[in-house]
Design brief:
single chain, 206 residues, mainly alpha, 9 helices
Length: 206
Amino acid sequence: MDATAALIAGLVAGLAIAMQVGAVSLLLVETAVERGLRTGVAAGLGVATVDLLFAVAAAVAGSTATAVLSEHETPIRLVAAATLAAIALHGLAALRRNRARGGPAPVRAGGSGAGAHYVRFVAITSVNPLTIASFAAVATSLPLGDARAASAFAAGVGGASAGWHVLLTVGAGHARRWITPRIQHALAVGGRLVVLLIAAHLALGR
């Protein structure tokens, strides 16, 4: 496979995987609504960074990565479930404290904590075994052949993931102008409950 075809394959795979609705995308939307556009974009780029690194690993050692993941599937899945559950429960506790003080905390504009949220979403995405498994499955099915094709595939994945997650967070960041504190609180609670359900799904192996 030449570099152009590998780049297109990476773009398609990256977009298809990034557009899946899951715990990370729900947390991204909530971050953009709560913290503003700049912080939301930084968080989205954190996800895209890990997608790029996973794509590199998958392109370099697709079949090996798949074998390793299969061998350690249960502990990886449980770590991911525990991490997501901890994030959801911590968020619910914070929301409860805000309500006890008289209502949801005001939305902070100006992108406060953008760097911290970038690191946070790098960490969250890194413990998601489904992402690297998906990229490894795609990379193994493609005759990437040489380093140029592998690099082009990884670049396509990274570009598609960054584009989608920036678009998602920009949309959510602008939507916060029309979201009242009451709706914001309801979305935050609902999002964290969905993350808890996803964590339970992972823990049960279903």
